[in-house]
């Protein structure tokens, strides 16, 4: 899954007497999987906002002195994954506007920024070099400058945001959360020592010792200030969480829509075993997301589970550029075979998805090189045939392996003995949640939030899932 990336993780804290910057640091640390490109924290003690951000992992961006300088009782934080905009400190968040009176962090993507651009240009604000997140912050700032409260400014900006967003906004004395009407990206609320914590994923609550309260509802605005927590439903909700959060992005110790991510992934594996029983000697997961799926597959099939691939967890992000020989190693620098569990075996390898297919092809080559006699590739989701416009950094449609290849053609490209994808219906069944609660656009090409002019980038395809019948 090195072919795909999530755009961001967001985290926020409100509480008198809480060390909000330190709590945010560890919250972002728990959300590191959602973005490794840059990180930042902004705080407020009730007057001017302070901010520190930079390129790299959370542990690289912040020192003890940085945290000590970020004082106050309100904080928001952000981890960013590099997307089409490229890697630059200017893209790091929080975004600060309004003479350091408003800070914003954003998880998601606004595929059509036409409405925002038109509004801002009408206010003599140039938009050519602004990201979607920056445009949102600028629009809120405009309304505040014209005399609106921060809450009213957000409500007035809401109709201009055509896309997916889980956003935290911090003024000098308030912490505000909003989600788009579909709730494409997750966002949850917890309590901590009389204060409140907001996070992209519930796994961060465990890290900082907060107690889960509830999810921010799709289309809802939650306001936290000296008077406590209150909320307002800005638009009618149409819940459509991106199912890819279950497939790949969320940490296994998180909960989404009341379901354990680990349990759902294990169910994917059980369902895969029912749909595709194999004659194999060993089940091996591609770490990390493939692990619970492989556990489920092994349990249901009776085939032994082994950790046949070791992952270098620390190579993903470093400021030291690899020399050419190491760069040429590609996937081998991140994943290494454990030959003793592979040699002479018929291997069932379990992965979460196939995007371009380049990494999967190298994994197959690596397993045969380690002595596997057969390599059966099992995928815990259907073929990805359509690009995402809601905050996942997927390739253009023409670069998706499944967009122009049948499953037999994909198998031949990978060089695998066999290739099987979890059926669409099997995937939905494994979640234990109704299909209408999900966005499944990467698999179906159906986009629940209008992507407007970006729809011209989509070529209709005959969806190539294999049917699952009870």
Automatic annotation (TrEMBL):
Name used for this protein in its record: Amidophosphoribosyltransferase
Cofactor binding description: Binds 1 Mg(2+) ion per subunit.
Biological role stated in the UniProt entry: Catalyzes the formation of phosphoribosylamine from phosphoribosylpyrophosphate (PRPP) and glutamine.
Lineage per the UniProt record: Bacteria, Candidatus Kaiseribacteriota
GO biological process: 'de novo' IMP biosynthetic process; purine nucleobase biosynthetic process
Gene designation: purF
Domain Glutamine amidotransferase type-2: 8-227
HAMAP family in UniProt: PurF
Family: In the C-terminal section; belongs to the purine/pyrimidine phosphoribosyltransferase family.
EC number(s) reported in the record: 2.4.2.14
